[in-house]
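Whether sequence alone determines local backbone shape is best considered at the level of individual chains. When preparing material for the folding task, we compiled for one chain both its residues and its backbone structure tokens. The sequence in question and its structure tokens are set out directly beneath this paragraph.
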Amino acid sequence: MYKHILVAVGHKPDLTTLKSAVAIAMEVGARVTALHVGNPAAHFAGPATGAPSATRITIEAHGCTVADRSRRVLDEAQCQGEVQIRRLRSCDASLGQVIADAARELGADLVIVGSNDPGWFRLYLQNTQKDVVRRCPMPVLVITPPCLPKAQHAKASSNCLSPSSQRGGSPVHHESNH
């Protein structure tokens, strides 16, 4: 099946996508490369001195934090793999391009990316997942996070049962046509 899985890891501290990738890798005997792509602002230099800016230092430190957390997940699961950090260069078109290029260079045969909540605000942002799917020649698995607010809403709506269900009848959900 799969021998090498590349998983894109971001800034979320729970690393749900990485943990899912590790579970898949352990099941099929694959190794994992956790890839974090740094922000393009990381390339800006300080004023006139050429010294790294505070923004660049902060972003690099954040990348190291993500890499350390990713390494711990791999180690705790005893999963064979590595962690890499790459930068989004100004000449790169997108995060998706960096991820696809890394997958090709590393010989990955499966790419796993996480999916964000597709809220209205996300419509205005770059859709990294679609970009990765479009650019990768190998299969891409998009992992969606558990949606607690949606699950809580579904549970709350199941409490709106008809009186007959409370007497042992079949449950009926009441819906309004507003």
About this structure: DSSP finds six helices and five strands in the chain. Confidence is low (pLDDT under 50) at residues 148-155, 157-178. Helices lie at 16-28, 54-77, 95-106, 128-135, 148-158, 163-166. The chain has two domains: 4-146, 148-178.
